[in-house]
Amino acid sequence: MIALLAQCAYLSETSRMIELHRALTARGADVRVATHGGVHRNLLDAAGIPYEVVGPPMSDERGARFVADAPGLGNVRQSMYTDAELRDYVLAEAKWLRGVGARVAVTGFLLTAQLSTRVAGVPLVTTHTGSWVPPVWERGLLPADAPWPALRLLPEPLRRRLVNAAPARVRYYTAGFNRVAAELGVEPVPSLAALVLGDLALVTEVPEVLGIPAEELEAWRPAGRRAYRPGTRLAYSGPLYARLDVPIPPHVEEFLDAPGPIVYVALTSSSAGLVRSVAAAAAAASARVLVAGTVHAVGDLHSGRTCVAGVLPSHLVMPRVDLAVTTAGQGSVQTAMACGTPLLAVPLQPEQTLNAVLVEKLGAARRLAPAATATAAGLVRRMLDDDRYRRAAQRVKGWYDAVDGADLAAQRILAIP
Questions:
Q1: What is the pLDDT of residues 147-164, one digit of tens each?
Q2: Which of 40, 263, 352, 388 could lock 328 by a disulfide, CB 3.0 to 4.6 Å apart?
Q3: Quick one: 12 and 79 in the same domain?
Q4: Both 183 and 61 in a single domain?
Q5: CA distance 278 to 274
Q6: CB of 79 within 8 A of CB of 174?
Q7: What is the C-alpha separation between 64 and 38, in angstroms, rounded?
């Protein structure tokens, strides 16, 4: 039995688990789903996927705090959960894994699974690592955009070396996990990198975008390095992004059918202020603006040239717009590229910056610092007027069209003994 542990505080991670559930069940696998709860658990309901809430139910407010505290955003001295929460979730997950007879657990950012799978004695597969994997920083490919202000004063070459050395050397965010691991007598988490890597970390990208040949990536081993758990392995599985089975509302259909260039603003897991700033910049570029409000209270932006909706099926919306603006989570980047739609990325943390840089290098995207969004109208206009961005995105689309990422991920999971 395959256990999917869904982190429903994130739209992207919830939707990825839905795609994996579909692919695994299509291959005849017995699949069970558990979650802590969270604002996007309704998507599991909408997809008709049964699930169990394990551990203390996560309220929408608690989920928002978890997102704010996550690696790259929150204080590095905390672990997203209190020790009591960690203990409760780990023990509840382990009990559930044993109870359902799981032989493999798969998660997208339910980080408590790093310990609960050890308690339950089952291997862990992660999908949330995306492109943020050891061969990337060992090649020095992480962008020099320093997440810590003090580093920004250093020369670029030195800054790049330090940024690429950090994941395997720092123990940010791990302290709480290791206190609970010691209490429960299970293997600790030796580094920030190890916190997000499973026994099998699925690299949900294609070699053409990541720039690392499949043979090299899949041959990587910890080789005795203390930064990693000894059994960690990597495998390409191709793009994995949301194909939400939700309709496009009639007022959005009408907006999409009207003439004029459209900028699609889909900034999930961000502040309402950032959404407002980007929407205003797009409007100032003489574009029509479609805002996926998700969890944001921005209904007052609705006007003749700005349309506000909630969660939208981006894979159906993006082919019909001229530019997408996201925070560059891998799922949203891949959705844009799979649709051949240029991307303006507003990354909020290092993993998102890497995702943005990968497609920016290919000519399909541009990056924008959150602090610069108020003056972004000129960049939006240039991207709308320059067809080279769309041609580059179409090239990436061709690579993605050749891979069924969800099915390949399912095959990788089912191949685990």
A1: 666 677 888 889 889 889
A2: 352
A3: yes
A4: yes
A5: 6
A6: yes
A7: 9
